Amino acid sequence: MVAIKFAVISGADGSLKTYDVSEAKNSYSPLGCSIGNNYEQDKKAEVFRSLAIGCTLNNASRIDFVDNDFKRVGEPTEAALKVLAEKMCGTPSSPNNAFDFSKNTSKNHKIIATLDFTSERKVMSTVVSGYKNAKDTLMKGAPDRVLAKCTQFVSLGNNKGEMTSQIRDKLMAQVN
Questions:
Q1: Which of 45, 72, 74, 101 is 20 to 30 A removed from 28 (C-alpha atoms)?
Q2: For the whole model, what pTM was predicted?
Q3: Rounded to an integer, what is the distance from CA 18 to the centroid of its chain?
């Protein structure tokens, strides 16, 4: 499993900008991949670092390099998100540094508690320290469940906005 597309909020009105991820091969390797739709121009935005940190820390998988291949340990979706984080914010050029973003992120943040994904909750939450506040909750899961918990958002231009019901509805319409 690989991530082939992701989106971030691009404006105050809740519009999404999508990015296509091209793969060198269908694997858990972050090497030789690229992200389209002007990602190189946009990638300095804080929203990408925040997304990559969430994909890394709110995640129970890992990727090992064994027998000249990248192998996942854990759930396929979780592993795909960990690889996406490296593609967004890492600088992988060899198996030796392929997951340096993950290693550095884990070193600089402490996981305090994790609530695993369940079919009832439809989200996974991890409480961390060392991110933006003394304690932050990172969440991923079903869009309707995640958006229901949001009170604010950060857009591509690093602008913060209030998560109104109108913006929440617009986001849901775009991801459905």
A1: 45
A2: 0.92
A3: 13
Confidence band of 26 (pLDDT split at 50, 70, 90) = low
Please state the domain count of the chain: 1
DSSP helix/strand/coil, 155: coil
Tokens of 32: 């030789």
**Residue 41 burial (CB count, 10 A):** 8
Range of the domain at 144: 5-175
DSSP 9-49: E-STT--EEEEEEE-SSSSS--TT-EE-SSHHHHTTSHHHH
Measure the CA–CA gap between 171 and 90, rounded to whole angstroms: 28
CATH number of the domain residue 125 falls in:
3.40.1110.10
Mean pLDDT in the chain? 93
